[in-house]
Structures are given as C-alpha cells and as structure tokens.
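Readers of this paper often ask what the protein records in our data store actually look like. Below, we set out a record of this kind in full and without editing:
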Amino acid sequence: MVVAGNRAASSLLAPFVLDIIYDETLFDIDLQIAANPASDYTTNFNQINANVNVVTWNAENIYPAQNMHLIIAEEVLSDQSCTILRNLTTALRPNGFILLEETAAQLDLKTALKETDLMLVGKQIDSSGKSYLLLKKRRKRIEPIVIQITGKDFSWLENAKAVLKKFDRESQEVLFVSQGEESLGLTGFMTCIRRETTNARYVFIQDSNAPKFDLSSQFYVEQLDKELTANVLKGDQWGSYRHLQLDLH
C-alpha cells in the first residue's frame, strides 16, 4: 500500500521500490494507493506490472484493508502524530513492513515505536538530509532450524534437502548460516530456495571479529528479530547482498 495523501504521482517513492521488488522476479503485486482526495494515479502507474487500486482514505481513520505486506508513507513522524502511524500498523500483516520517508531533522522515533509496538529495522539518510525508516511489528520470533553451510564441501546439502522437504512451512523456518568464509554463492542459492518456500533466511558472517554464531547470543537475536531474508555481517555492520542487472548500453 502507498499512502499518497495529496502528493503528485511523480513524487512518490513507490515506483523506485517496485523496481527493486521486480528485480527479484518472485512476486505478483497488488498495489493500493491511499489518497485524500482520490486522484487518478492509475495512468501514472500504467507501465508498472501491478494491479493498481486507488482508494480514498483519511489518514486519521483506520485503513479499511488489512494484511498488507508493505506500506509506504511520507511525513508521518515529521507531523509528530502517532495516530497515523498507529492506523498504518493496524493495516499491516504480522510479518509486514512500513517504509517511512521523512524530512524533519529531529524525529521522536522512540516514542512512536513505543506507542505503536513497532521496531526499527533499518535507517538511511540521503545527501539532502531526508530519512528513510523501515519498521515492522514486534512479534515472537520462530525458533529456526539452523543449517551450517560452507563452500569448501557440500556435505551439508543432503541435510538441507531433507529439512526443506519435511519442515512445517506454516510454523517453522530454516536459517542457513555461514561464518568464516570470504565468499559464498548465498544470494543465488537463496533465490532458488525462496522459489520453493519463503520461510528461509540466511546469516553470512564475513567479520573475523564477530562472535561465533549462537541463537542464544543477544547480538544475533537482535538481528534475527528483524526477520530479514538476508543478514550479512561485514566490517561490524549488518547489510545484505543483491544481484543487480548490469546496464551494458
């Protein structure tokens, strides 16, 4: 869902986000654009391969739909109102995310997270000072089935096949972990795995100073609570890897 308010379609963040999602080639997208007043955004999104539905919505009210995977909105915290953020949260599915675009230099994020029971997954600030915040609902983390993998041999592969064949996709998840290797084809491997199940994630530890991976370690618990597919630790920073198409022209 995209909360457009009265913004012009050309100023929305959604097209950039959709480009990233479509690079993954695993998703069909139903896009809802919440505007007040309603505008014809469909003509602006007609080149995007998504089912677009524009709805009229006053942000002070609870959104009429639920179970959204991703909600994109702007100037929610800059207006210093938790009401809108709370209403967005009610429309979110348990494992969904909210992406906020904010221009205010000072944001009372701590209060907003406390009042909405959300957690901060990631934050980026661009060269203009604009902040991008990725939030998600707090929920009890599923204890994963951990599979240690390496590129030095493939003895782990048969075990991985057996686990993926038998595990309960509704109540369990698989976590692939690699530590102490400089490179590993995890991105391509996970792309193949996630064509079969979305309940699979990975941790790739490329930091020699990092503690040994342990599900009981608070250092790793805090990262796994974010429920991200890709968790790459390098240079004391968490990040991810993605395949990007090269522009050969």
Notes: Residues 70 and 243 are 21 Å apart (CA to CA). The mean pLDDT is 84.
